[in-house]
TrEMBL record:
Species this chain originates from: Kitasatospora phosalacinea
Entry superkingdom: Bacteria
SUPFAM superfamilies: Pectin lyase-like
Protein name in the entry: Coagulation factor 5/8 type domain-containing protein
Stretch forming the signal peptide: 1-33
Keyword Signal: yes
Record bears the keyword Zinc: no
InterPro entries in UniProt: Pectin_lyas_fold, Pectin_lyase_fold/virulence, SACTE_4363, TAT_signal
Keywords annotated in UniProt: Signal
Length: 612
């Protein structure tokens, strides 16, 4: 199945988006020069808190206004967290039905998903370019989320009736959600061709209806409970998911592309904000789990610890990086409220157990060629819910975890990066040598989309949005679950650490290569691998890993191999694939010369079940 390139920007302008919702969700503005509180404090104007005591019509109006404003706001600065206090919203007779747009994170404020119940549906639909019903798809439905609540699916009629539509692509996680009723991951009602390009589900339960995968080209589901799953396109990966389809990835024509691991090797759920019994905000920090299966919350509460909001510096727009780092040095955690934060120097995380929690896709932009975040080689740090944008002055690295040469083990209390997303280009013409560098042993990377933009500001041009590599891993025993890295100009992932594990990987080669000479790993090797394991590595294992090509300059660009690794018994791959999406050229082999080519004559997928 081929697909067109992602569309250019469209929709409401940033100014119109702001005006549309200002009266409803932003009655006050936090002054840039406001003093930093010692801890706790207001969540600010961009956090919308809903109460079950509010009239249903008022809740509906607020949600609809936000959705209209954010529907086409792909690269605008507006960001919102929408938080539901514990209770029930909507009824079967009068359901609460609302869509979720760009930079909207929707979450319940209960301790567990059952504490907030929505009778209705929470939806993401196709976007139709210029209203053209023949150009409707979900391949740009990024940067939105749903977490920590229960949906009793109800409402709407006709094609949309009694179904929750969650038609998303990358950077749109669904976590700690119970869905009771019909759920579809594609929008088959709004025009065509209705493509979708990957999503992430974790720690969630689905009852009363088979999940319709539909057009999702790849999708990752872990530590969840499923009540059925239909079809797959190229790469569907399940890790510790009860009720998942049986392993079936194969080279045989017509075989379902399912990669199924009975348990997930190591996981750590993202920290989340909730209200305690006294109505006070707290942040719950889940503990790491090993060889896990199913949700963390069904049989008793999620293991972990709770931290009061007074132990957090609540970062609001206008805060400076000097204030942020002073708070960290004083022993506080960070709760970054929705907004865009320009950083002339890096946020420095030095204390074990520090929590850096973003709400509403809080976005960090380095402005002086610096990193946005540096984490020391210490136990138990969690960084979650952030976008890190490359600034216009080139940074050597956007985020660094541990110093090079770090040797400390963190097996019992690992550093975790959850829903941390990187962009080079798109919102601005940024540049970085490397987006993310992980040097600390035992680090967990859980749902990361590391993207050199193929559209938006700087996107689509070989000479702009410059960046060589999305991810470099030097630490040992690093585990990535749900990893997508796309369009970087040299080796996109370089994995140098021992005993690494990757469960689900999605990649697209750069679209905009102008000629073959500009894209050569060596005199003999055309292009660069999407994923390379270092030549000295003795042990590594990967499952469900795909790389696709769409060279759009009308030139016969070739990539010698999508995956490159030393041929040794300890370095093992399961269920690899390549696909020719569109354009010219192609990928000559899947891994190290093994696996047939994909190109205009044979689009694929080209599957390799095991290597070596």
């Amino acid at each position: 199945m081929n697909r067109a390139p992602r569309s250019r920007r469209y929709g409401l302008a940033a100014a119109a988006a702001t005006a549309l919702v200002a009266a409803l969700v932003a009655p006050t503005t936090q002054a840039a020069a406001a003093p930093v509180p010692p801890g706790g404090g207001s969540l600010g104007a961009n956090v919308v808190v809903l109460d079950p005591a509010m009239p249903k019509a008022e809740v509906q109006d607020r949600l609809n206004a936000l959705a209209r404003a954010q529907a086409g706001n792909e690269f605008g600065p507006q960001r919102y967290a929408i938080l539901f206090k514990p209770g029930t919203y909507g009824t079967a007779a009068d359901p609460l039905v609302f869509p979720v747009g760009f930079y909207e994170s929707v979450a319940g404020l209960g301790k567990n998903p059952g504490d907030v119940v929505i009778n209705g549906s929470v939806n993401v639909y196709n976007q139709c370019v210029g209203g053209d019903q023949s150009q409707c798809y979900a391949t740009t439905n990024f940067w939105r989320s749903l977490s920590n609540l229960t949906v009793n699916v109800a409402g709407q009629s006709g094609c949309y009736g009694n179904t929750d539509f969650w038609a998303v692509s990358q950077a749109a996680p669904l976590r700690r959600v119970q869905m009771n009723g019909n759920v579809t991951l594609m929008d088959y009602c709004t025009g065509s061709p209705a493509w979708a390009s990957g999503g992430f589900v974790a720690d969630s339960k689905f009852t009363g209806g088979t999940v319709i995968n539909g057009s999702q080209q790849q999708f990752f589901t872990r530590t969840s409970n499923l009540d059925g799953w239909t079809n797959g396109v190229w790469n569907q990966v399940f890790c510790g998911a009860e009720g998942a389809p049986a392993q079936s990835f194969s080279t045989e024509q017509g075989a379902a592309p399912y990669t199924t691991l009975d348990t997930c090797p190591v996981t750590r759920e993202a920290p989340y904000l909730y209200l305690d019994d006294q109505g006070r905000y707290r942040v719950f920090v889940p503990a790491a789990q090993h060889d896990s299966r199913g949700t963390t919350w069904e049989d008793g509460g999620t293991p972990g610890r709770s931290i009061g909001l007074d132990d957090f510096f609540v970062v609001r727009p206008g805060a400076t990086v000097q204030q942020i780092n002073a708070a960290l040095r004083a022993g506080r955690n960070l709760l970054l409220t929705p907004g865009v934060y320009e950083l002339p120097e890096a946020i420095r995380v030095t204390r074990p157990g520090t929590q850096v929690v973003g709400l509403g896709f809080a976005t960090l932009v380095p402005t002086g060629g610096n990193a946005a975040v540096k984490v020391d080689d210490v136990d138990g740090v969690n960084v979650s819910g952030l976008i890190i944008d490359a600034g216009e002055e080139k940074s050597p690295v956007l985020m660094q975890v541990g110093n090079r040469g770090s040797k400390d083990a963190h097996r019992s209390d690992p550093i975790a990066l959850s829903d941390v997303f990187f962009r080079v280009g798109g919102a601005l013409n940024g540049a970085a040598d490397t987006a993310l560098e992980v040097n600390s042993d035992d680090t967990l990377i859980d749902d990361a989309w590391i993207w050199r933009a193929d559209h938006g500001t700087g996107g689509g041009s070989w000479t702009s949005a410059r960046s060589d590599t999305g991810l470099v891993v030097n630490g040992d025993r690093v585990t990535a679950t749900g990893l997508a890295v796309e369009h970087f100009q040299k080796t996109e992932v370089q994995w140098n650490g021992e005993q690494g594990r990757v469960v689900f990987f999605q990649n697209e080669n750069p679209y905009d290569v102008p000629n073959q000479a500009a894209w050569m790993a060596s005199k003999e090797q055309k292009g660069y691998p999407a994923f390379a394991v270092g030549p000295k590595v003795k042990t590594f294992e990967g499952w469900g890993m795909g790389s696709y090509s769409y060279f759009n300059q009308g030139v016969d660009i070739r990539n010698s191999m999508a995956f490159q690794a030393p041929t040794t018994p300890g370095v093992r791959f399961h269920d690899l694939l390549t696909v020719f999406l569109n354009g010219s050229g192609g990928i000559d082999s899947v891994i190290n010369g093994t696996g047939r080519a994909v190109d205009p004559a044979s689009g694929g997928p080209s599957n390799v079940v095991s290597y070596p």
